[in-house]
Amino acid sequence: MAALFSPFRSSYRYLQRQAHENPVIFYSCVIGGIGPVLALVVPPIREHFGYVPPPTIPNGYPVPNRPRRPVQGYEDE
């Protein structure tokens, strides 16, 4: 049974050694590995707690339903 868990034990020791010798690289890899998992897990959790996405931003201003008046003043001719 001990031979079954031997690869995991050596991997754990390797990761532990890397965390002590190269902590910047080790923790960068840990955070980089967590990112894709969070991208798949967080949206369903947000929906479960009632998050509603905001309405879309309009692409233009509404145009009034009347004829345009010519500009007067400030030397517009």
Strand content: under 5%
Q: What would the average pLDDT be, to the nearest integer?
A: 85
Structural class: mainly alpha
Order of helices and strands: HH
Number of strands: 0
Residue stretches low in confidence (pLDDT < 50, at least 5 long) are none
The Cα radius of gyration reads 30 Å
Main sheet summary: none
The global form is: elongated
The number of helical runs is 2
What is the first-to-last residue Cα distance?
A: 94 Å
- What is the percent of helical residues? 40-55%
Could you please describe the fold and organization of this structure?
- It comes from Candolleomyces aberdarensis.
- The chain crosses the membrane at residues 24-42.
- This is NADH-ubiquinone oxidoreductase 9.5 kDa subunit.
- The protein is 55% helix and 0% strand.
- The chain has 77 residues and is mostly helical.
- The protein has a domain at 24-52.
- Helix 1 packs across helix 2.
- The mean pLDDT is 85.
Give structural attributes.
77 residues, membrane, 0% strand, mainly alpha
Give a brief description.
This protein is an all-alpha fold and 77 residues long. It has helices at 6-21, 23-48.
Task: Write the SSE topology.
Blueprint (H helix, E strand, L loop, with lengths): L5 H16 L1 H26 L29
Helix pairs in contact: 1-2
